Amino acid sequence: MKRSLSAIALLALALSACDAERKPQQETAATPQPPTPALDQPAEDVPPATAPPGTAVPAPVPGTYEGYGKTRFGMSADAVRQNWDGELAGVPGADTACYYLRPKQADGAGWPALMFENGKFVRYDVETIADVAPGGGQVGMSADDIKTAYAGRVEEQPHKYVEGGKNLRVKSTDGASAIVFEVDAAGKVTAWHVGVPPQVDYVEGCS
Q1: Distance CA 20, CA 27 (A)
Q2: Where does this protein have compositionally biased stretches of type Low complexity (predicted)?
Q3: Average pLDDT, the chain
């Protein structure tokens, strides 16, 4: 009887040892694993994209019969520079009384061009669609558009250098200045300028 009890005790000890060996393996197998990252997500933080820096260009200012922006006809070049938002490029020639100052712009267009003669601001020239003439005229309009916008005030003259072209001249209400729209043979406005006489009627600018 004692031998039977001893055998049973030994069998119980052996079973306990086997259970002890299996338990860590079972616990290890049951330990939850961290979730696998989604395939469409980057493993590391990615800095936000940065747009390439652009070059700001000053917005055009509607022209008037008296000048452009804060400038006025009759001002000196120094006074115009002081009243201009930005930098103007150009200097008078040593032997000429007429010259242009142009805005320094990133696109290199340099319009409008400001004409000076005998030390005074007398005219500005435009050849971009962005600027608007007093009364609403713009580059790209047709001759008929101009005649409608300035009804009863347009004086038509043939263009000196463009075959089939014409100049459409519109005086200010007080007659102190005028606009001249240059129209090509297809009937489209390609440029315009505003100024005081006689400079507003110079066909070749300062040339």
Answers
A1: 11
A2: 38-63
A3: 78
Would you call the peptide bond into 112 cis, given omega within 30 degrees of 0 as the criterion? yes
Contact predicate 60/131, CB 8 Å: yes
Q: Return d(Cα 93, Cα 97) in angstroms, integer.
A: 8
Residue 60: HSE in the Cβ half-sphere, 13 Å Cα cutoff? 17
Specify whether the CB–CB gap between 205 and 193 falls below 8 A. Answer: no
User: Are 45 and 52 spatial neighbours (Cβ–Cβ below 8 Å)?
Assistant: no
pLDDT, tens digit, 9 for 90 and up, residues 93-145: 655 789 999 988 756 566 789 999 999 999 999 998 889 999 999 999 999 99
pLDDT given at position 25 = 47
- What 8-state DSSP symbol labels residue 153? -
Contacts of 106 (CB under 8 A, 6+ apart): 55, 56, 57
Question: By C-alpha distance, which of 130, 124, 140, 135 is closest to 183?
Answer: 140
Q: What's the farthest any 2 CA atoms get from each other in the chain?
A: 141
HSE-CB of 31 using CA atoms within 13 angstroms: 6
- Fold annotation for 77-201: protein yfey like fold (2.60.460)
- Whether omega for the bond prior to residue 42 falls within 30 degrees of 0, making it cis, is no
Two structure tokens written together for 2: 């004692």
Burial of 125 (0-12, 13-18, 19+ CB in 10 A): buried
